[in-house]
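Journal club side-thread
Mid-discussion, someone asked how the predicted structure for our own chain would compare to the paper's figures. Pasting it here so we can look after the session.
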Amino acid sequence: MLPNSEPSQTPLVSVIVRSMGRPQLAQALESLAQQTYLAAEILVVDARGTNRLGLPKRCGNFNLRMVNLGRPLLRPAAANAGLDDARGELITFLDEDDFCDPAHLATLAGALTGDPTVGLAYVGLRVFEQEDAEPAFVLHLEHSLEFLFERNYLNLQAAMFRRSFVTAGQRFDEEFEILEDWDFFLGLALRTRFLRLESVTANYRGHLGTSGAGGAGNHDPQGLQRYVSQLHKKWNSIADPYRERARQSIENGLRAQRAGNWALAEQHYAEVLLRNPHDLNALNLAGMARLRCGDFGRSLVLLRRAVAIKNDAPGLFHNLGLALEGAGEQVLARAAFAQALQLDPAFAPARIALQRHSQAIEGVVP
């Protein structure tokens, strides 16, 4: 981590809002006006470059400043314009179609002020996929650099970081029309320590916007894959040694498995999970190793974590069903097998498991 000057007790927070003039901007600003934190400035970047947003100079108790470069800006360029104009020791973002809870800034700033070894703090994010509905899920995973190389589980509005990294050269890569946040997080993760906070204070409307990287009506698989490939190409030379270390541990575990040493196999998988608690392969294999050792409780923990990360894999639901079966949770086991079959009607192991349960209910010995 970069050396930090002695932080003030109430450091100024710069909140950068990139705007295309959408109608939700008013609600985003209202959520900022309600913040309990005392020292903030709101920067609204006019990404259209029209200077027609017509905003006041105050947002609640905070100064509101327009940033207008006089030309249209793509997402990363608008983010950089905000960084260039920010005066705060701490920086966060809020998209104009999202909003945050009143304690949001105070929670994040408090964490960074309380521990100078932390360069970025983040909270949980409620993800909405339709208007006037409950959140579809909460994104709130533990930090892992190895997992971040594969998938972005962070959101700019859920995170706050120190401006010292910007001063040292951390920028948004303007080659990325989307996923610029993922690329930015990777750059920061290689520089500093990330801290996951227990609070959930950020709110993301995944169905709104036009990036194609959200959900529901804001999802463009082809465009998204183009930039995922571009990002992996950029970072592969750094990520590959981490991947190789995980691959070797998995191979050692499989070798122990083939020798019938399930306890040793689970130790190798645990090595992977220590560095990346979200590694699906390791979660699945470790869960099955614990199942073979008769540790149904630990097996359930691991396999439930795997299903929570990837809920469209029939094999994971089938294995979860086996663990539930071993733990005596027959109703939940049948539901897991049924979910596997719903995901893939041709998935034979789940069909066989359901038949076995049906025969048991009817009193037929299989």
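Post-session note: Residues 1-5 have pLDDT under 50 and may be disordered.
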